[in-house]
């Protein structure tokens, strides 16, 4: 039996370990929890979701929905767990974050081909074959070792944030109402409507509130996909109304009118006892979060079970260093996976672990590694992180813009995206069929 090492039991590391183990590779998975935690992690479980509990759009007419479907067809553990622990969220795939982590933790710990070692790895070492998936909060000793391996190249960095969570019973439903935007889905979101005056009062308090100190923080270096709400508020009076507080499609059934602004809350667990404030990533001080967010109609007496936190994410300059399958150029027994490669988002991180795990497993089993074409979402992400300009490299969510066009014109965007998805899934099904041969199911 072949052996492999995986560093990190986040989404990417667990997915990589799972793909290796399913193909008969003996995996040693190193995870520092519970002996050590990053500033963002609190749970001892694997694949902990530290920001939103949403894996974003569900349908394949959206690029991230397509990515999820590709992963399902390839036997993804992360997608299996997500589907098993899903909570209602309209057109999105959201999960009960505790059960999601528990599901993956149990699967990993109970697999006979996976040995979990609860130790912090402090150096890259010469262990091979190896997949490094220690995440965007990789601690300094290992980070320095990786930097030295790549000849002292500097890591890039951006700041990420997690949204607060409140109890359902503390929400004033006389002011708030259940509704999904455009009535899509089953009215899974709680909506807190604001008049223009209420919005003005809230915004003024938000942009003048005291922030927690985050060393090196600068507004212009925040990743656009996870912008703290107070930073967004400072960009202009209407900015929030075109972002997380957009009222379009959320008419208040009590008044029949569309509010000036709407704060949405999404279910955070299956029982519906906890809700997170959508788009309210923040690094305000905890006391200020309580004061300012209690100005939101419906949240006057909200009980906060988790406040928003801010943390620094780092990622390597992957172009020129990694191949499209996330292996290191010149060392096909060393892989990186997850957000540290420059993919952004839960699903994207897991997909990189899936690709790395499949590629390494095939190499260890004497088979030709799969090549995901750029016409697939998985392949497009691999191409993005491995090519392009190092100087302009920024974290990227999956989107149809990094996939090649159809080669013919389709006027309706939804139909064009459906055609892109069909082209992708045809290629995925062929890859899955080839990978199924010799698969060792345990």
Description:
The chain has helices spanning 11-22, 63-73, 77-84, 97-110, 140-149, 196-208, 229-234, 286-293, 346-364, 377-386, 413-436; strands at residues 3-7, 26-30, 54-57, 86-87, 92-95, 114-117, 130-132, 156-162, 165-167, 177-178, 190-194, 261-267, 274-277, 304-306, 309-315, 327-328, 331-336. With 442 residues, the protein is an alpha+beta fold. The chain has 2 domains: 3-155 and 316-436, 3-Layer(bba) Sandwich (FAD/NAD(P)-binding domain); 161-312, Elongation Factor Tu (Ef-tu), domain 3 (Beta Barrel), CATH 2.40.30. Strand 16 (327-328) and strand 17 (331-336) form a beta hairpin. Helix 1 (11-22) packs parallel to helix 9 (346-364) and helix 2 (63-73) packs parallel to helix 9 (346-364). The protein starts with a strand and ends in a 6-residue tail after the last helix.
Number of helices: 11
> Which descriptor suits the 3D outline?
globular
Say what the CATH topology of the largest domain is. Answer: FAD/NAD(P)-binding domain
Tell me the name of the CATH class of the largest domain. Answer: Alpha Beta
Strand order of the largest sheet: 6-2-1-7-17-16
Q: Largest beta sheet, briefly? A: 6 strands, mixed
- Quote the average pLDDT: 90
CATH architectural group of the largest domain:
3-Layer(bba) Sandwich
> Number of domains in the coordinates?
2
Q: N-to-C SSE series?
A: EHEEHHEEHEEHEEEEHHEEHEEEEHHH
The proportion of strand residues reads 15-25%
Task: State Rg.
Answer: 22 Å
- The helix-and-strand class reads alpha+beta
Which consecutive residue ranges, at least 5 long each, have pLDDT under 50? none
The amount of helix comes to: 25-40%
